[in-house]
Amino acid sequence: MRVLITAGPTREPIDPVRYISNRSSGKMGYAIAEAALAAGHEVTLISGPVNLVPPRGAQFVSTLTSDEMDDAVHQHLRGCDVLVMCAAVADYKPAKVAAQKIKKRNKTLWLELTPTRDILTSLPKQDREFLTVGFAAETTNVERNAKKKLLEKNCDIIVANDVSSADLGMESDANEVTLFFRNGKTENISRAPKKNIARSLVKIFSNLREKSLTKKM
Ligand code: C5P
Description:
8-stranded mixed beta sheet, 4 helices
């Protein structure tokens, strides 16, 4: 199976030295890439800026901004069996990037933000050859928001985690996730190191992909 994984944050520049980003460490996406490689799959990892070593054996694509990540996903999508959008893509970017460093002044500075391109919703809606997995990091109403995302972002699975507690999810080595499937089913993977969660996720993704292929035959 060919697995395309995005991981880490994106950086949206404000000026040559400043940017908007988020707290994603990339650990979950990298763990999924490693688990997929260990299971014998072919892996392309598209990664935002993180402090992690790319897994050996993966095709590695480094990106910074949401636009770069969007381009990279579209470039590498061909022939892919499973797309795992684990990256925490910034939802907004500065409307204008200042060419020079913005000078400090003793008054309010207004920053105009525009929505970034949503990578998942930009994918072809019909005749998809690949299983689409989105992630949802929520601090409130995890189930309601995940189910909404499943439909709006046209995913086969949403992997949702509650990032409101400090010792789980973002930046942490552990996670607890709930999977929401298109047919209404849900599955919980209880608290475990991200490496173990990743192994279970890869099994679930490859089984579902196999099933959908058998159905088409
Ligand atoms: O809407 P939200 O950012 O919470 O959705 C999370 C899911 O959508 C993740 O799978 C993320 O990789 C994806 N996403 C995207 N393009 C964006 C923002 C998020 O594909 N611009």
